[in-house]
Amino acid sequence: MEMFKNVYFRLGLVVAISLVSLLAALPRVPIVIKNSFVNIDSFIGGYYFSILNGKVRLDLREVKKGLDLKGGVRIVLRADMSKIPPNDRNAALDAARQIMEKRVNFLGVSEPYITSSKVGDDYRIIVEMPGTTDIAQAVNLIGQTAQLRFRQLKAGNDWSQDKFAQYYQDLGVWEDTNVTGADLKGVDIVFDESGAVSQAPQVRLKFTSDGRKKFSELAKKNVGKPIGLFLDTDESPVSMPVVSAGLSETLIDDPVITGNFDVQTANALSIQIRAGALPVPVEVLEQTAVGATLGEASVVESLFAGIVGLLTVLIFMAYMYGRLGFLADMALVIYILIVLAFFKAIPVVLTLPGIAGFILSVGMAADANILIFERTKEEILWGRPRGVAIKYGFERAWQSIRDSNASSLLTSGVLFYFGSGAVRGFALTLALGIAVSLFTSIFVTKTLISVFGVDKKTLLGVRQ
Amino acid sequence: MNIMKYKNVYLLFSLIVLVPGIISLFIYRLNLSNDFTGGSVFSFDLGKSAHGEKESAAALFKGQGIRVREITFDSIQNITLQTDPATAKQNDAIKNAVVSKYPQAKQTLFETIGPSIGLETTKKSVTALGVASIGIVLYIAYAFRNIPKPYSSFKFGVSAVIAMLHDGLLVLGVFSIFRIQVDALFITALLTVIGFSVHDSIVVFDRVRENLGKLPKSMSFENIVNYSVVETLNRSLATSFTVIAVLTSLLLLGGGSTRNFVLALTVGMISGTYSSIFTASPILVIWEDFRARTK
Question: What residue of B is the nearest CA neighbor of A309?
């Protein structure tokens, strides 16, 4: 395009891109001036835009930090689909994911990330809760892997109220039935309208139609005996309601568990039962809990290392290539601004390896300029005039730059495709770095050189 | 400057450096982390110097019936224990035991990776390395397709890949000999290293290609390659300097949790610079000489 040949148009473009990137990369900085003349209460940076009812959003308020930086809990669960017909598996996985969501919401975690995935024949649910401080509680509640089971007393164990404590502890007297959490549609609290204790809260079990059939069979066999609700076969039941005589005859309404509940204890029991109402049993494949302090210390250390590394590169370039090196340094700083802006806009979840990858990319971003300047030096040695030498430097180094960066892009593509989590973050950082560095080290540096010129007497230490 | 004169010496030197690592890889294998084998990691900030607490910490775990595989120290106060896979419940018990022994202690990390995930990561890593290598050979064969006859782009590709294997093997060998732990991030570092290695070789080979068309036909192939290597020497050293400068500062100042990752990158990048000058080019020359002599 014609206008791209105009130096001042190109300079304007570079300045505009740099400014936009700077504003995007900045954290929110408040500007408050209050005196008798002016009254300003504003801020720059950390912008947030949302149009079309939030369909298009640009959230630049903060850099998204990964678990390793923020601290938090990540749990990978595998759903055991062996007893589920293949056609129902996706639905079962989805239902299990929703139950995990409920568990997480119960913990009151901000910005949880819950997703399901299929790896080979494995059905998985991944739960991430950044910023969670109570690791043990989170792991215990989310990692609650058991499926709720309704168990009955083995034949030969008779029942009277004074055996409650014995049966509550002696787990050997119980046996499995065909009713499980998969038969439950939901659990909620209702208030007793009829009983002697008016308005007493009860826990209502809402069965599926198939589950209701199975449960009423079970209830018929166990009139006057308890049914144990177990989350874990080697732990005491969460509830041990005794089947009342009326329940077995007609099961028109959903059955309720009555007892000496107040709203709080009824609620707690319903959550426990609901949490166990998994359509499929799950097992924990992977669990990670990172304390927040570890991440904070690492960020500070990495940033410090990055600044030292960057300064070394900047000084080296200026020392090696004089004014050209200084202009390349400016391009390198613009590179950092643009990449940071992309990080926030995409957004890229920043992890420790991601930060290391970004810092590494700063070192690599200098490579294209080094190739160009070394080529320019050679062209001058071969007797070309300054302006022509720079032009040839850019033109003839291009092929090397293109070929060599293509191989790096290839590896980052492979990393992204095969990697997961932190590895993907690193690959994305690397690829983004390569793309942006091509723009800054060629377009930006070239523009800066055409505007600010080169040394009067010497160029790159070569006398003419 | 005649660098290619000593081409056999460089290759011999590479062999001397590589062979111990390869032997170690065969005998001692790699010190694989939980990412591949499955297992648990517990980290505690003990609130006091953790050195000297190795035995008593191990005893706490033994008391809970968890087998400890390795104990390391991330910082003065931070102790990390790698164990067989443990459950969240066992973690609770361990945490209570640690806090009752060290009242100031805080848990900074608990991680369990199941054996099946470990196997999956191993498979994916091997596939990724394979796909990347094949992709690179194909790419170079394509990028150098216009090389003047009788030289073949295939030889350029293979030479660059041998240099790439050289760098990959060196990193693997160093990690095997020094028993440094290899985790999923190490694979990332390894792929980055081979990407960079080829990047470097391509810059040198690009110049060889340019010079093959430009320099007088009377010049031998060895001289042309030598000339090209010397011409690109400044660039190779300058680029390596900037990359190794940032890596060194990360290695020295960047904190514990990514240290092995950065170490793998640093070793690989140094090897990558060396191999683009002293491995890829000599192999190309020797191969070409062999072809010319047998014709």
Answer: B246
